[in-house]
Amino acid sequence: MTQRLLVTGGASGIGRAIARHGVDEGWDVTVIDRAQGDVGRTLLADLSDPTSTGQALTEALADGPITRLVNNVGAVFPASLEEQTLGDLDSSFSLNLRAAVQCAQALIPGMTEAGFGRIVNMSSRAALGKELRTAYAAAKAGLIGVTRVWALELGARGITVNAIGPGPIATDLFMKANPADSPRTRAIIESVPVGRLGTPEDIAHAAGYFLDDRSGFVTGQTLYVCGGLTVGVNTI
After folding, report:
1. Which of 74, 81, 90, 184 is such that its CA lies 20 to 30 A from the CA of 50?
2. Annotated catalytic, 136?
3. What domains does the chain contain, in order, with CATH numbers?
4. From the candidates 136, 150, 174, 210, which is the catalytic residue?
């Protein structure tokens, strides 16, 4: 059976690096994104919309089952609690969490039939708490919760489910939410024990471990790839 990988939000940043890893592994890579990617096959869709997401998933699965899934798509919606709108909260949950549930539900039958599956949910260090992240942190913490639930439900079928919590990674998403000239951004970088921002390739390397055939005894886990930011007390 052809080894296939689906990456949501894989046209750029972390998702693109993971898609590239899949190509390097010899897998058939499909990306679902609102922008055209340059790695693997891209299916254009609005993952914040359930109907658009469902149509893309139907098209992706038309070529057969997909046994590796990275739920990577996300958006931050930064705001203080007082300024966070309920619309932003709904949008964050739809894109960051609902899309992951919908993609997993679509792919699970094929994984079950194959007796093999790998699901990686892209959470965030912000799930542990960060200012101006009510909508984002709530959705990303939700991904950690469903990771543990799915691991319990699917383990006997040969399907593993794990999460990654990136720290500050130099992507367009991060830089949009954390402008380079902002004192807050400089403070974030200075607080990272390894002394730098992470790269998309740092996250792709971690995802590659969870996606590997040999990682079948690791499930329900969250790996923080954060340069040591989560080790001690951090007020940033």
Report:
1. 81
2. yes
3. 4-167+200-223 (3.40.50.720)
4. 136
Strands 117-122 and 159-166: parallel
Write the pLDDT tens digit of every residue in 161-206.
Answer: 999 999 999 988 778 777 888 898 888 889 999 989 999 999 999 9
The sheet with strand 68-71 has its strands ordered as: 41-44, 28-33, 4-8, 68-71, 117-122, 159-166, 222-225
Report the greatest alpha carbon distance in the chain.
Answer: 52
Contact predicate 30/43, CB 8 Å: yes
